[in-house]
Every structure is written in C-alpha cells, then in structure tokens.
Amino acid sequence: IFWWSTDTESPFRSVQVDRVASNAFGSVYTEAKRSASTGIGAGGGGMPLRVQEESVMGVPDGYVPISSGVQPPMTFPRLEYVYEGEVFSIDQEKMDVLKRNSSKISLAQVSESIGQMQFGFMDVSTFPGLEVQDVSLTQDREFGYVVHLSASQGMISINQNWEQWQSVQPNCEDPQCWEDGQLRPSDVPSNLRLIEIADAFLEKHRIDRSSYGRPEVQRDWEVFTSRGQEVFVPDIQQVVYPLLVDGTPVLNAGGTPEGLRVGVNIRVNRVAYVNNIRALRFEASSYDVGLDAEGVLNRAKDGGLYSYQYPNATETVQVPIGTPTLEYVLIHQNLEGESNELYVPALVFPVLKKPDASIGRTRKQVIVPLIDGFEAERPILEPRPLPEPLPVDPLEAPASAPRAEPAILEIAE
Question: What is the mean pLDDT of residues 149-169?
Fold first, then answer.
C-alpha cells in the first residue's frame, strides 16, 4: 500500500544498532526514581499501579486482595532470595545500553497524498509541509481488524474491529446463561495449536519474525488451578515471540518477554490482535558497570528491580534462585518530557521454587540491572491499602445493603 521513504529496507524487518557516544542517554534510572514516589507501583506509559504489561490475561501472580473497609496492618513476610547457582563473575567494566530509535520512520507517501486532497468544503493543499503521524485502517466486515500505524512511535498494532466481532461473545440476559457461556480449562487448545494459529496469521500478513525467538504461550491464569480456586479462563490466550537483540533476549520490568504479542480468541480460534510490531533501530551507548558479582547477589537477595518489602514483617521466607543469564530489561525512561525505551543489560536469576502463594506475591525471576546507579537509586516499593470508602447516608440506603466487594490492588512485581 505504501512504504517508508527514507530507507529501501523495512525498519521492522531486522535489528540495526548504531554506535553513539558514552552515557548518551542520561540517567538510566530516571523512571525508577519517578515511579517510586507513587508508593505503590512502577512502570511506564502512565500506569502507576503495576509494571507495564505484567500480564494481559487473567489474573497474574502478584495480586493482593484488600478490603475496602478499615484495614489491619499487612503481615506478609519478608522475602529473601538465596543463591543456589554456579559461581559467576562480571569481567566487563562497561556495557552497552540500547535506546530504540524511531526517528527515521515517516509516512511520506501518505503525507504527500493527503496534502494534495481537496474537499468541497476545504483545500488541504493550502497547508504546506503536512506530515501524517498516525494512520488507522479499518476492515468493515465480519472478523475484521483495525490496523494502526504510529509514525512517531515506530509501531504498528493490529486489533479486532469490535463491532464485527460481536458474535463471538454469548448474548445473555440472565446469570445462568452467562455462567453456562464461561470457558473451562478443557476448552483451551494446546500450546502447539495456539502457536500454529499465531504462526499462520503472521505468515499470511507477512509480519517478519526473523529477529524473534521461539514463541511461548503465556498461561498465567493456570496458577489459580493449582490453588484450588475458581478459575476464570480468558477468551484470549497470548502467544509471545521474544525479541532478540544480537541473540540476547529482552524482558520487560515485570519479567515477561518483550516481543510480538499475538492474542488468539479461543472461542473461534482466530487471532484477535498483534501488538508490539515495532521498528528495530537502536542506538548503543557505553555505560559503566556498577556492580560486581557480590553486589549483584546483594541486590538479588532483596528482590532486584522494582522489588518491595514490608517494613513491619516479623517473618522471613527464603526463596532459592539459580544461575543467572545475561539479558536486556526494558526500562521506560522519562527525561525532560521525553519518553524513551532503554534496553539495559541485566542478570536474570530464575526462581527455583516459589514460596506458598498465601504470602500474597511471587515472581518467576529476579532481575538485577548491571549499569552504574542501580544500587543507589533502586526503590523498594511499599504497597499501601486503598482509602476507606465514604460513609453511606442511612436514609438513602437500606440497613441490609450489601457490603462493597473487595477491591484489588495491583502490586508491581
């Protein structure tokens, strides 16, 4: 339909890294310092209550139910991560931090075409130098999609056209119908089948996967099956194709892989969305490594990136972690009004055995960034309960009025 005017090769097709001066991106941990001030969570993109994209399916680990009434002090124990892996060392004095760069992307041909348009009530050509920043294209047919292209962000997303997916959901007017229409764990296809559906969609629409690793199915909802709780099975199951930069995986701050995210609606076995189709142009800047092996283990002991501890804990639970791997962690940096995606080298420790779920929070791995400044600026977040609701006027509500349902406070993990 059109392509980018500045390059003959698609910026979405392969990773390209350009070298820039040392410490070119300023303080790497600006976002961590800002998020710590909220007192309850961290993450970019205007989401102060949890790490961005912690999970988009079901209810992940890390949720803490909090009643909307008067709260007793939380008595969750302190988690201490104990290293049980192999001996390792950090030999590099400097490592590269990457910044994703979308500045070379433009929709020049679209801008040129729109700039020449003349309507009966207006002549667009009287505004010289117009540039198209965002374009949305909609399929107005059954199971159609909306394709959104963001030139400023260097990203493309594909989402279902909700008006044309109405037939997917049960059309219910009573609770029993709604209950009968809920999905059960037995309705979820195998991982292999979900990946087949995602692969076929990406292949059909020529979405390149050469810079991504083997796909993984995210089944966070299954954690509640093992706890014996009533399980909500989401309609959309997510398949993630992990981004690899020079062969190194990328995680977000919540510990889940960054990359192409394909949602499969299992009611009709169709792809509902594809997110994170992004330009893979990066700038690399050298930064000082701030931790040796001992310092890394000290940070890992407390939980690493965006950890939190309860100050009034009277009990300590030890959690074993294994030998780390070197990966990138995506940190959203806000610097002088500019939002950047920084990819920071980090050691990622797998959790070998999760503690009892009754303590209220768990994680799959512990992430320790290696760049100088993490030890000094890393926040330890302390979740706090929601405020007590306003009193109800007894003249307006019957004495038998039901109590409010417990609220859910999302804790960054």
Answer: 88
Name the pairing type of β-strands 78-83 and 316-321. parallel
Integer Cα distance of 210 and 223 in angstroms: 32
Q: For residue 48, with 0-12 CB atoms within 10 Å meaning exposed, 13-18 middle and 19 or more buried, which class applies?
A: middle
285 φ/ψ sector (left φ>0, alpha ψ -120 to 50, else beta): beta
Beta bridge partners of 241: 260
Q: What is the CA radius of gyration of the chain?
A: 24
| Rounded CA separation 328/67 (Å) | 37
Q: How far apart are CA 52 and CA 307, in angstroms?
A: 15
Owner of token pair 């509902």:
272
- 269 φ, ψ (degrees, to nearest 5): 55, 50
Q: Are 192 and 203 in contact (CB under 8 A)?
A: no
* Whole-structure pTM value: 0.74
Quick one: which H or E segment has residue 222? none
DSSP code string of 115-146: HT-EETTEEGGGSTT----EEEEE--STT-EE
- For the segment 42-81, what is each residue's pLDDT rounded down to a tens digit? 333 322 223 333 333 333 344 344 444 455 555 678 889 9
Please give the Cα distance from 148 to 135 (Å, whole number): 6
Q: Is 104 left (phi over 0), alpha (psi -120 to 50) or beta?
A: alpha
